[in-house]
Fold this sequence. Notes:
Elements: E1 3-6, E2 12-15, E3 26-32, E4 41-47, H1 65-78, E5 81-87, H2 89-95, H3 97-110, E6 118-122, E7 133-137, H4 145-168, H5 174-177, H6 183-192
Parallel strand pairs: 3-6, 6-7
Antiparallel strand pairs: 1-2, 3-4, 4-5
Amino acid sequence: MFGWGVTANFEPLYMLKQFYxxxxxxxxxxxxxxxxxxxxVFAAAVILPPTFSHAALNDSKKVTAAKREELRVYIEANAVxxxxxxxxxxxxxxxxxxxxxxxxxxxxxxxxxVKPALLLIDGNRFAPYQGINHHCIVxxxxxxxxxxxxxxLAKTYRDDYIGQLHLEFPQYNWQKNKGYGTAEHRKAxxxxxxxxxxxxxxxx
Length: 204
């Protein structure tokens, strides 16, 4: 059943669907950083066991930073298999961000230690992965546990990475804006110009 309830301590309990197709090894896939001005796009693929449960698991955009870190540890400790991959800004400029997002997902699936029979993709488009069927689900990270788990890993790994880039170019305050096109980031670009981690193909 999809919906949400309230636990005894009044924290939300998100009842995400465990599977799209029962008795099938499914990997949820999601990306982070697709709409950014700077930095790489990250993607994760996650296979969860039938018994997996965490009251706070949800779309990473709907979870606090502290809770995302808690979920990351729990997902990594309890997943059947998980992998995270990235495609950097240089390659994004070469092949475009949509293809780069698909490539990052493919790389994450490549790195899984268990081969899934079905990929659940957050969104409405995907480049087929050879030998594995897929199903695209719009806003799937708020519907299916494995996609939500992938969104948590992709987001937390990318945030950590962009935090390291921030140390090299603190003038853009990527530690706060994560490379997205906030007013602060656009102002910094006007003042300092683009750096080597900016996506030149993005219409800034």
